[in-house]
Amino acid sequence: MRIDGLQYANWSEKIFKQLREGGVDAIHVTIAYHENFRETVLNFEQWNKWFEQHNDLIMPGLYASDIDAAKASNRTAVYFGFQNPSPIEDDIGLVEILHRLGARFMQLTYNNQSLLACGCYESEDSGITRMGKQVIKEMNRVGMVIDMSHSADRSTIEAAELSTRPIAITHANPHAWAPALRNKRDAVIQAVTENGGMLGFSLYPHHLKDKTECSLLSFCQMIADTAEKYGVEHLGIGSDLCQDQPDSVVEWMRVGRWTKDIDYGEGSASNAGFPPMPDWFKDNRDFHNIEKGLAEVGFTATEVSAVIGENWYRFFKDNFGPAE
Amino acid sequence: MRIDGLQYANWSEKIFKQLREGGVDAIHVTIAYHENFRETVLNFEQWNKWFEQHNDLIMPGLYASDIDAAKASNRTAVYFGFQNPSPIEDDIGLVEILHRLGARFMQLTYNNQSLLACGCYESEDSGITRMGKQVIKEMNRVGMVIDMSHSADRSTIEAAELSTRPIAITHANPHAWAPALRNKRDAVIQAVTENGGMLGFSLYPHHLKDKTECSLLSFCQMIADTAEKYGVEHLGIGSDLCQDQPDSVVEWMRVGRWTKDIDYGEGSASNAGFPPMPDWFKDNRDFHNIEKGLAEVGFTATEVSAVIGENWYRFFKDNFGPAE
Asked: CA B229, CA B224: separation in Å to the nearest integer?
């Protein structure tokens, strides 16, 4: 079983076919960066069209059991998430509405301060806000996973503690291995995993040691080191694959509508676009390379399966339904 | 089993308790008259709050099986519908979105011309529009029932013919019995029922012979006559009960935002508000009176059950899921 904990491709029949060629049973896809509620609904509508047009390749994912249904019919189950709480605007009632529509992950922030918490690019992190505490409770109630991939340290640690259900960092790596602003310090990974949460390892070059030149073995050794520290059961892949996206999309991610200046995020003026992927992970057909690499650095077959899919499967199973 | 095919009460714990006292297993409730998409979502949100607060009395109804679940737990299953296509605005993709949120009926028009068809108060009925034909196809695909209660004759007959699945008139009576503008002529009832559709009999006084003074036996004899003409299997109740609503609400129904003049609809300047209900049907505790009346005019016990609930149950079962 192969599950990817985060992708944001420029979706097409070509990519849906590559998901099948690569044996990817489920993916969590981002459908909002800065979109408001109505704009997010338009993105759900676009996916409904794809589900109709390509119902031999993909199907909607609502619960973990849909992965079983997808496997049985040789398709990929698609789960939705937001990288910003902008889809709920200032209305907590939209959490349940969007869960009903299929949203299963929501970041409490993108890079900036949100109504709920603080993003990792702000200079001051004042932690979870008043509304943030209410929204965490509501997400826990309905079964929408709190994702802190882009949030600042204090906010992330507080979210892990306030949440009565496990939270996730769907796409990031340990800061100690690659000291990018978006990668996570030990105290953060500790807080998330000791509360039952998941860390999805990112293949986005800005999150990798040596970026595009990162070696497969360096990536897999980093996973082995993380497993030793925090337990292999908390680890998965969240590739952050942005396949076939034009550079205008990375600008939308970074700039949204919040500034008139250009913000280069993890890039720079001279390197503003999407960076090229490492040659051992170009697209959805390359998960077998990671499996090979994990075996080479000493993972057992059971552990490889856990990291490549079984851990996310268990996490989906426990966290997408209403609280008991 | 008791099912009401249309209500629009001013909902409260008192009314939810009366539903239980009256043994009403399911109701179809209107949640939009002129609301746009976002406003309709706010109404879904309000119902989500009621489902949380009163989960001992009511539960969301999505499929007919929820009526079984409601009966088993001594609750009323609540199904949603719109009396106007305003919630989909000009966007056909919102049909599937709103179906996912729980909408199961949508009128193609309220009293006026809509983007889809013609309402019964217009002087000219040009039938189903271009968008209307597309929306009928989409409603058929996802399992949202076409309701023509407020539509003009030609539009209704065309909808019955164009739809590949049965349609409904959830709340109206035969025009021959009570010649109100909103009641339905023979050709209309014929077209709806011969395509497998349902007619829900209204208790709204403006639709009754002798209005508030209408006798129970006159109402039940009218049902008997309709059963003889069109078959008892096509008949149910759609009480149109607007319990505890202030008169400002009937003004909103009639006037919406489409006119600056006052439109009195079925009322008049001297009688602008909600008319008083007949004394044998004041609220949800009075369905047993109708059952008694139906028996008195000659219905068998099986036929009474069919009209009071079983016919709607079968119709819900066949028409709320995706087309095969």
From this structure: 9
Q: For residue B120, give both structure tokens.
A: 């019964």
A93 inside 8 A of chain B by CB: yes
Q: How far is A31 from chain B (nearest CA, A)?
A: 15
Q: Is residue A324 a part of any domain in this protein?
A: no
Contact of A244 with A15, CB cutoff 8 Å = yes
State how far the alpha carbon of B93 is from the alpha carbons of A42, A185, A207, B90, in Å: 8, 43, 37, 9
- Which sign, positive or negative, has the C-alpha torsion B172, B175, B180, B184? positive
- pLDDT of amino acid B150: 98
- CATH code of the domain containing B193: 3.20.20.140
Is A85 contained in some domain?
yes
Summary mean pLDDT of chain A:
97
d(CA A168, CA A195): 10
Q: Which residues pair with A107 in a beta bridge?
A: A147
Enter the tokens of residue A69: 């249904």
Complex ipTM value? 0.89
Token pair of B230, please?
């069109």
pLDDT per position as a tens digit, B17-65: 999 999 999 999 999 999 999 999 999 999 999 999 999 999 999 999 9
Number of separate domains in chain A:
1
Cα–Cα dist B72/B69, whole Å: 5
Four-CA torsion A7, A10, A11, A15, nearest 10 degrees: -80
Q: Mind listing the pLDDT tens digit for each residue in A306-317?
A: 999 999 999 999
- Closest-CA residue of A relative to B51 is A96
The verdict on residue B145 lying in a domain is: yes
CB contact under 8 A, B96 and A42: no
Based on the number of CB atoms within 10 Å of its own CB, is B215 exposed (0-12), middle (13-18) or buried (19 or more)? middle
Domain hosting B144: range is: 3-319
Residues in chain A: 324
Measured between beta carbons, the chain B residues lying within 8 angstroms of A44 are: 97
Quick check: is B175 in a domain? yes
Tokens (6 digits) for A192? 């998330």
| pTM recorded for the entire structure | 0.93
d(CA A8, CA B193): 49
